[in-house]
Amino acid sequence: VYMLDADYSFALVRNVVRHFVERDDLPPLILVAIAYPGAAASRETYKMNRTRDYTPVYAPDGGYGAEYQKVSGGAGKFRAFIAKELVPYIGRTYRADPADRTIVGHSYGGLFATYILLTEPTLFKRYIIVSPSLWYSNRIAFTMEEQAAASGLRPNTRVFLSVGELEDSAMPGDLTALFKKLTSRGNPNLDLTLRVFE
Question: Which residue of 83, 110, 183, 193 is surrounded by the most CB atoms within 10 Å?
Fold first, then answer.
């Protein structure tokens, strides 16, 4: 399981995973938490790295503000790092099944996971996408979904999508719209679940 935003979420996820594995409710797994030096102590470092790595295109405004948006649009390079460096390293170093990977991302991390799903879906077998920032760059994720469908891309994967009903006025509607769009493609190999939490 590859998880983003490890700077603040690794300890929580690690403890939840350990709890379920010890009770045989999850198989043993390797938790790969991707973090950044200094991000746990510096909000600026945290925001800069997330903006650079998790956003699929450059956008001059939005997100954390113009200063951070200057580095936006690096998701392609970050995806290549995961695919060409990190995944092979984990495979060489640990007894990891090369075909059994999950990614977990939320907010900008959820946008990044959505980006991978729509551009290189075979990189992961499962996707857990929580409260993705689908509003980013005039809803660029919907354009990417159209491009993926037009190119004949048909992911063979499981996807769990979730959002809080009251997070803001757009996020539940956007995620529901993406779910409906993906479902409408009639791909029997794409196992989709949407959960809007009250």
Answer: 110
Contact 13, 31 (CB under 8 A): yes
Distances (CA, A) of 5 to 9, 10, 12, 49, 150: 6, 8, 12, 10, 32
Query: How many residues are there in the chain?
Result: 198
pTM of the prediction?
0.96
| Residue pair 66/48 in contact by the 8 Å Cβ criterion | no
| Nearest 10 degrees: Cα torsion 186, 150, 63, 79 | 90
Tokens of 78: 């970050």
Q: Is 149 exposed, middle or buried (0-12, 13-18, 19+ CB in 10 A)?
A: middle
Token pair in block for residue 16: 């939840």
